[in-house]
Amino acid sequence: MKVVIIGGVAAGPKVGAKINRLCPHADVTLIEKGEFLSYAGCGLPYYIAGEVKEQKELMCTPVGVVRDPVFFQNVKNLKVLNRTEAISVDRAAKMVTVRDLRTAEEKVLPYDKLVFATGSSLIRPPLSGIDLNNVFSVHKVEDAEAIRAALAQNKAKDVVIIGGGLIGLEMTEALARHGARITIVERLPHILPMMDADLVIHVMKYLESKGVKVRCSTLVQSFQGNGQVASVRTDKGDIACDMVIVAVGVRPNTGLAKDAGLELGKTGGIKVSSTMQTSDPDIYAAGDCTEGCDLITGEPCFIPLGSTANKEGRVAAVNVCGGKDVFNGVLGTAVVKVFDYTVARTGLGEERARKAGFDVVTVLSPAPDKAHYYPAAKTIMMKLIADKKSRRLLGLQVVGPGEGDKRVDVAVTAITAKMTVDDVAHLDLAYAPPYSPAMDNIITACDIARNKMDGVFEGVTPVEVKAMIERKADVVLLDVRSPGEVQAFPFPGSVNIPLGALRKRWTELPKDKEIVAFCKISLRGYEAAMILKGEGFTKVKVMDGGLAMWIS
Amino acid sequence: MKVVIIGGVAAGPKVGAKINRLCPHADVTLIEKGEFLSYAGCGLPYYIAGEVKEQKELMCTPVGVVRDPVFFQNVKNLKVLNRTEAISVDRAAKMVTVRDLRTAEEKVLPYDKLVFATGSSLIRPPLSGIDLNNVFSVHKVEDAEAIRAALAQNKAKDVVIIGGGLIGLEMTEALARHGARITIVERLPHILPMMDADLVIHVMKYLESKGVKVRCSTLVQSFQGNGQVASVRTDKGDIACDMVIVAVGVRPNTGLAKDAGLELGKTGGIKVSSTMQTSDPDIYAAGDCTEGCDLITGEPCFIPLGSTANKEGRVAAVNVCGGKDVFNGVLGTAVVKVFDYTVARTGLGEERARKAGFDVVTVLSPAPDKAHYYPAAKTIMMKLIADKKSRRLLGLQVVGPGEGDKRVDVAVTAITAKMTVDDVAHLDLAYAPPYSPAMDNIITACDIARNKMDGVFEGVTPVEVKAMIERKADVVLLDVRSPGEVQAFPFPGSVNIPLGALRKRWTELPKDKEIVAFCKISLRGYEAAMILKGEGFTKVKVMDGGLAMWIS
Fold first, then answer.
1. Contact A368 B328 (CB under 8 A)
2. How many whole angstroms separate alpha carbon B74 and alpha carbon B76?
3. Which of A65, A271, B21, B219 gives a 20 to 30 Å CA spacing to B176?
């Protein structure tokens, strides 16, 4: 069996290695346009930061074996043609024409099975001045080396990062480590568009506290400078800088697939079945060049990730070899380290869940990630999205210094298994004080969702409360914190009755008016609402997440 | 509705608070024998260690509100009778007789619903000398204060800890922080009996590297000393010491329930249905005093944990109030911090899985918990247990400095949802270099399990290889590491052919003999087996986990 794989970074080598293990005598050729194979592209920001010391580390296996063409030949039994471009595919004749980029020599490779692992390319907006010196992207090893060289020459004192997505934020931290003053410019109303606005606002506040300027709803128009970039022109004024990082996303590399007549998906990637087969049964595709499928809605999506590329690569290889494996889709899971914050998400956000027709219940829950008395405990601000009708968990988002990634991974598993919030609330998660509260954060959030679904109490989000205040709504804001807490962090316009006094002082409150109860995290706010409900109040709501989730 | 709850530490207050929120006018009385209510018993080792500074912190809510009887009355609307013991239950008359331990006064409390939350008691073996000074247990706040007082007087230079379970290990770290020299004495062949022997051996090696002596298969016979303990007598000799911690487990407090004629389970706890109802429909029970149910096998179990107590308490409260909620059982999940190691497990161990009739496949996989090039990456040694027939994940165990608790929580969720290893291998877990490898540890372990189930390769455990060496079996131990690695850490009796040379040098190996291939983590060992299989070898196995899991 002759197999040709086009692309040698993430999915390609995985496909090749797995095919060889399953069919040791397959004749597998791997074609890669660049010099480097199978490097850890996701590690580039950490190499730029200086946390990863040597470029070589990004090229090695976990035990330090360098993944060069000789390695692939000797160990994986793959013929590697690097610096070689696939220029056309003749599907009828089952042949790929390739060109050696060093010699310009062309040759034709016959195949029984062909695999597209052509990856993605940076989107480089066609703006005036984008080719000035010190306007960088972060996609290849060469980009990282160029940025490191500029850093070594002290040419990164003021950096503008265009795009507040995952790479933009990783680069923010990487360059801040070198002492750069950073401005993030984002065209959308908030950074990290995969996160809900009411949660991501806490990331933006945190970034500002770290000295990073965040400019949202701002359009970049051009780059100014003489040889080297000196400022970024936006619709809201110029921003002086000596370095620019353009991180506005990637698009799938599908030119060759399109020319070969393969079907592309709505989102632009190569259309594949769950066996990673393209519209041609002898051609498979895996990784960034393909269109994905949202596991909850079944809708097509384009979410390029190294982790997905590896899983898809294995599935493609098994099917190429005549086995049977399927990859059903993704949940849009993402995680990024932003200084000491972990920001992560999975599943549907609130808006998408509504658009998909779910009867959405949301929870905002700020809580320590370990037993609250354990000194290393840190806060996770959590937002949970669930469906009232089916009671299914639909999504989870986390922001804060606590270990949110653990809770998101639990949610990934639960959502994939179509678990309800009731199921999740009863999970026997690992508990000891250094690892979680006795009721883990995700269990507490699910219990709050269950209370809301069961009509035990009604929530109102900080965004809604803020709108009430702004429109001077006729509502009592009931602060049930202790006098000491109120003094330390007052909430203007509210009435303070400490929770412990409420059973005696509820008569001070009007039964005919809407009341919003809250405290620091709205646990006491919830207790207060229950006490008032018990006394016959019918218009009491609880502010979701309390002042810990307040947006100012 | 009159509700009486017996027990005020973990499940009891949860039941009471939840009942009050659901039925604000219920008349709820909470009876507690001790002085303290709702304290964080799991936090005692960290208070003894000095990590938690004030006793008060263990008594507070996450926002610092002290949970004293006044708090329960004013906030939770519970009548609290502390220092009060329930001495009998008249089920026909629906009355509980209680005695005030301060005044010896007795009174009778009528109930509509009664809840047992009587918790568990320490097992205190009836050995000679157990009442000597400085022989402690760790169960109540008073125990912790006594140990802290002894530490303050510098009376803990040499400590013997009887019992190598979770509390024993938490106390090991707590006392080591004070500079104590520690010996753990365990009657079983290994500490942490909930873990599999081949994984826990790495915990024992680590403890020894930290200066802790571990004496297994050792029976304590008596405590020697004059007033204060001076040594522990065992069947293997005396161990000199100035402090002893007895941590041999707890048993459910069921005397009152038994006297009242409630049915007890096989494991000794109060028998309850999934609604937490006892054999008397008006009596519920929750927490340590109850018998649990293993979610996989359906067998009864006794696994007292604060996390389970909270979940069961909520379920009991909902049902007491006429709602409907169920708690189906637990997976025996446990986690413990042992210095810088995280040791955790869930589901069935290898032996129990076999006994339960599963066709067991196991995987040993040592791998970094983050991208291997990310400097903060640390190793997790992982053991996965699955069923070949159904392909279901059955159990996961982790040991090492890496974040194993995250992977165990994913396994908890997957096992509860009855996921297969194929399902888990395709989970869209959160990936970025500071959080996981591109293929998360649990995904890699599941892929290895899939390869074994599909007959791609055959494994042999380090325990089996050691036995082969000891019986001088006619087997070739094929080390495919690089010469440099072999020189640094030789493996006597093996043949070294580096993986990269194997495609040329396989002719040096005999086809008729059994061959066990390995490397540092057996990834190259696996590649080697695939290469040899391709060349017609039929007797090649791979040593599970490689030298990283070797037991010496």
1. no
2. 6
3. B219
**Backbone phi and psi for residue A435, each to the nearest 5 degrees, phi listed first:** -120, -30
Beta strands in A241-339, from DSSP E residues, in sequence order: 243-246, 250-252, 283-285, 292-293, 300-301, 334-338
Instruction: List the beta strands (DSSP E) in A247-298.
Output: 250-252, 283-285, 292-293
pLDDT in tens, A172-188: 999 999 999 999 999 99
pLDDT digits (tens, 9 = 90+) for A226-272: 999 999 999 999 999 999 999 999 999 999 999 999 999 999 999 99
What is the maximum span of chain B, computed from C-alpha positions, in angstroms?
90
B269, amino acid identity: G
pLDDT, mean of residues B87-114: 97
The model's pTM is: 0.97
Token output for A409: 């991974």
Q: What count of Cα atoms within 13 Å lies in the side-chain half-sphere of residue B240? A: 1
The tens digit of pLDDT for each residue in A472-526 reads: 999 999 999 999 999 999 999 999 999 999 999 999 999 999 999 999 999 999 9
The residue type of A33 is: K
Q: Span B505-519, mean pLDDT?
A: 97
Phi, psi of A132 (to 5 degrees): -60, 155
Spatial distance between the Cα atoms of A364 and A449, rounded to a whole number of angstroms: 10
DSSP A290: B
Neighbour tally for A209: CB within 10 Å = 9
Contact B62/A368 with Cβ under 8 angstroms?
yes
DSSP string covering B207-241, please?
HHHTT-EEE-S--EEEEEEESEEEEEEETTEEEE-
Within 10 angstroms of residue B207's Cβ, the number of other Cβ atoms is 23
The maximal CA–CA distance of chain A, rounded, in angstroms, is 90
- CB-based contact, A423 to chain B, within 8 Å: yes
Residues β-bridged to residue B542: B459, B517
Q: In what order do the strands lie in the sheet with B106-110?
A: B84-90, B95-100, B106-110
Q: Which of A357, A399, A396 is nearest to A381 (CA)?
A: A399
ipTM for this model = 0.97
The pLDDT mean for chain A works out to: 95
Q: Which two tokens stand for residue B62?
A: 């996450």
The tokens for B116 are 């047992």
Say if residues A180 and A243 touch (Cβ distance below 8 Å): yes
Residue type, position A368, single letter: P
The b-or-e profile of B74-110 (16+ CB within 10 A means b, else e) is bbbbbebbbebbbeebeeeebebebbeeeeeeeeebe
- Whether A385 contacts A353, CB under 8 Å: yes
DSSP B271: P
Q: Quick one: B536 exposed, middle or buried, by C-beta within 10 A (0-12, 13-18, 19+)?
A: exposed
Give the nearest partner residue to B24 out of A71, A408, A534, using CB atoms. A534
Q: Which residues from chain A sit within 8 angstroms of residue B79, using beta carbons?
A: none
Mean pLDDT value of segment B213-238: 97
Contact A314 B456 (CB under 8 A): no
Residue located via tokens 């507070």: B60
- Indicate yes or no: CB of B77 within 8 angstroms of CB of A414: no
Q: Count CA within 13 A, CB hemisphere, residue B56.
A: 5
Domains within chain B, CATH numbers bracketed: 2-119+251-320 (3.50.50.60), 135-248 (3.50.50.60), 340-453 (3.50.50.60), 459-549 (3.40.250.10)
Residue B257, CA distances (Å) to B1, B85, B280, B513 in order: 22, 13, 11, 64
Return the residue of B nearest to A414 by Cα: B413
**d(Cα A117, Cα A115) in Å, to the nearest integer?**
6
Minimal Cα distance from A68: which residue of B?
B500
Exposure class string for A350-365: b at 16+ Cβ within 10 A, else e: bebbeebebebbbbbb
A318 with A22: CB under 8 angstroms? yes
Q: Output the pLDDT for position A39.
A: 77
Which single residue is written with the structure tokens 């709820």?
B28
